[in-house]
Design a protein that fits this description.
- By secondary structure, this protein is of the alpha/beta class.
- It has two domains: 192 residues, 3-Layer(aba) Sandwich (D-Maltodextrin-Binding Protein, domain 2), CATH 3.40.190.10; 100 residues, D-Maltodextrin-Binding Protein, domain 2, CATH 3.40.190.10.
- A hairpin with a 3-residue loop joins β2 and β3.
- α3 packs across α9.
- The protein is globular.
Amino acid sequence: MKKQYLTLAVVAIAVGAASAQTNDTLAKVKASGQITIGVRESAGAMSYAVGDGKYAGYHVELCQRIITNVEKVVGRKLEVRYQNVTAQNRVPLVQNGTVDIECGSTTNNATRQKDVSFAVTTYVEEVRIAVKANSGITSLAQLNGKTVTTATGTTSVQLLRKHQRAAGVDFKEIFGKDHADSFLLLESGRADAFVLDGQILASSIATSKDPSAYKIVGETISVEPIAIMFRKDDPALKKLADDTLKDLMKSNEIEKIYDKWFVQPIPPKYTRVGLPVSTATKAVWADPNDKPVEDYMKK
């Protein structure tokens, strides 16, 4: 506990020293008494709407842990506001100050790092393919001549096209406005396959009308670091967020939080995503870093 308070004290000093910064989120929320977190309506167990204007999920809870420490540093209780974001507007809303901390399912990549900052990686994702169980599709090569869907603003289809095993595979793209809409395209038969983060696919299937009617197939298209996002050039908030997450990783509390959202039944329907923590995710908990996806692609 002493170490935690010492860490917070160091951040508090950083808040005062950073008062001249443009992107000083801690000073901003201290003055306003409010903090806005960006959330997703249907990003699987990472971040999703539970009704009544409330949101839940793995990243939402991690952000709540960060906000608890923000309150200790700024010395006041904050009103937490939720701002629904999409794949298209999440980066601009962080940049322009509408969202103070984004708690969805965003991949940390080099392009985004030019515009925003990321906390240490909290989840390593595998991009996969979901199909109807009776489709006969089991590999990337079998997508030739098929219709593939993903959400507007995501990088999944581009990654699919670049995959070496997709060479010569010609498929049609169709975009849903969000993850739920993309799954509906698969469910209704307008798309033959849904390409996206594996945990979102698993969550979509788990909460569908008939989970047995779908399956995740084929090769892993990409391995991507997923992280909490905030404004660029805000060292005080980054240090606080990183220290909060590193403490959870060191104490192994983060694995309990993960288990709560990805293994145990979750509200509002109390279905199970059923996705045990991966070796890759455990590795980043053991050695916290904020490396972009390009570093993973070199391996």
